[in-house]
Amino acid sequence: MIDAIKNLPDVKIKVVNNDKIIETSSSSLGVGKKIIIFGVPGAFTSTCSLKHFPDFLESLPDLKKKEIDHIYCMSVNDPFVMKAWQGQYKNGSEIIMIADGNADLTKALEIDKDYSSSYMGIRCKRFALMAIDNKIVFLNIEKPGQYDVSSPSFILSQLK
Predict the structure, then answer these.
(1) 143: DSSP letter
(2) Is the dihedral of CA 8, 32, 36, 142 positive or negative?
(3) 62-85, pLDDT tens digit by residue?
(4) Active-site residue identified among 13, 29, 40, 48
(5) 25: which strand partners?
(6) Would residue 124 show up in a list of annotated catalytic residues for this protein?
(7) Distance of alpha carbon 86 from alpha carbon 84, whole angstroms
(8) pLDDT score recorded for residue 5
(9) What are the residue ranges of helices labelled H in the chain?
(10) pLDDT class for 1, splitting at 50, 70, 90?
């Protein structure tokens, strides 16, 4: 597992921000900023759509009070799926989407899981990380089937 002192890996990703799809490097996301990235196994899946993403939307004011500059949601999906999923929520565009289509960032963070038995291929485990100026401060990875340590309430408890 990645050490908490490591920098964000440097791989190409696509982000959905303000209705635009932009190619960038994952290492550029946290430069000079305090960011949170939470990851889900798949856009439009039940826990991701009914709990994880909405919980972060609801917690945005509290996270901003902790001086978080940007909040990203990552999944091993293409940018068009991520954009469509973001659009399902009234204020969804307040969270920047990371489309890790080839699982390059997922693999670099060592949080990949093979969901082939569910016909989903390689996906990221459910997780949340915080980085300050690109240095990973914490990386919380959920146990299979759980939603706890990657929740915004857990992250807020870590920031006290």
Answers:
(1) P
(2) positive
(3) 999 999 999 999 999 999 999 999
(4) 48
(5) 12
(6) no
(7) 5
(8) 57
(9) 46-47, 53-65, 79-86, 104-108, 152-158
(10) very low
- Tokens representing 110? 């060592």
Asked if pLDDT for residue 97 goes beyond 60, the answer is: yes
Structure tokens of 82? 């991520």
Reply yes or no on whether the pLDDT at 4 is more than 60.
no
Domains along the chain with CATH numbers:
12-158 (3.40.30.10)
Residue 17 CB-density burial (10 A; 0-12 exposed, 13-18 middle, 19+ buried) = middle
What dihedral angle (degrees, nearest 10) is formed by the CA atoms of 61, 34, 100, 138? -100
pTM of the shown model: 0.93
Burial of 145 (0-12, 13-18, 19+ CB in 10 A): exposed
